[in-house]
Amino acid sequence: MKQCPVPCPFVAAHSQDMASLRSHLLDGYQCRDAWVAMSKLVNDPVRRKDCLERASALAPDDEELLIEYLEARLAVNPADGFAQQRLNEIRTMRLLSDVKTPYFHEPPKPRLIGEILVSIGAISESELQAVLAEQRRASLLKSDRRLGQLLLKRGLITPVKLAKALIIQQQERSRARAAPQVLGEYLVEKGYITAAQLEAALAEQIRLDLQGKRLSLGELLVKMHLLSKEKIDQAAREYERLFWSQFNA
Ligand SMILES: [Zn+2]
Hints:
This protein has about 250 residues and is mainly α. The protein is built from 14 helices and 2 strands, in the order βααβαααααααααααα.
């Protein structure tokens, strides 16, 4: 078995040539790019889906590709509940990672979310171990390896519990550094909202995202009557100034 690099130079030179791509794969190359290129050349949605499935299996960590594959599955069968659910989960996880996006630097290594969930009693140690074992076994196309998602899917935690654990993780991150990491944290630090209010807004954000509705933190805080639009704008401006002031030192 021969593993092709990404990008594959052969495919780069033959991306429009179905016969060359096919012979490249028949030669035994494990080539993500060849399957992706084939998926763009075929007209039949079922064949397109099959090509993307093989490409995705060769690059299980490529989330964009996984999304493309799941969307191709839905194009074949709009009632594909599994594909729909996986897409929703990916959206949720993206939302969660946005929440944790550091503004200034890579944060120091925080406690893992599983440890935090155990420490607040959201799940038991044995539930954590069971899900971690599943995570190691899981085929990437069948289920996501990320813990929060597995726990949500199994119904072991609620969005509220996950939000609480994420807030704790965020606080642990921020304790190690001077500057707040995200706008939500800045709002708490400056007393615009309380940590409990931020947690409630975050839980609501996760819940809505599970239903495919996406709102920014600011929009949600206004909607939940926790902060006025004017205050949000003011805080965002202050926060921006703080951010840029780092570069003037
Ligand atoms: Zn190749």
